[in-house]
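> Could you send the GCFC2 factor prediction when you get a chance?

Sure thing. Input:
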Amino acid sequence: DNSSEFIPQCRICRRQAREQSGEGDHHEGLSSDEELTPTEVDEFQKSKDNVLEDSRKIFEDVHADFCDIRKILLKFQEWKEKFPDSYCDAYISFCLPKLLNPLIRVQLISWNPLEQNFTELEEMPWFRAIEEFSDAEDVSES
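Output:
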């Protein structure tokens, strides 16, 4: 079976071709088959920029009280304090994840944990707001 010999030979050929062409940016251990061409990188960046631009427009026509997670959670906190029975009967703790999901997803569109200077989830404003809300719920229940 020549297939086991074929793979190393291909790698040797690609390495020799890179050395002859002067490509010095290849990292050993990475397959050159997986490397993106400059055109592919440009297309990806343009597509990414378009998605980020579109994501900024999603909530531009929404009242500020309904697109800010902290403000939304404050409304629910007020409801819980003023009408605890109604709040409990509405199973709000089960509804909040579905309600906040689109708001959080928009904020995570540009988040990339593989970048060197990425923001930890725990440091993001929406995470802190949910954490504070959860702590307030735990205090009021106890």
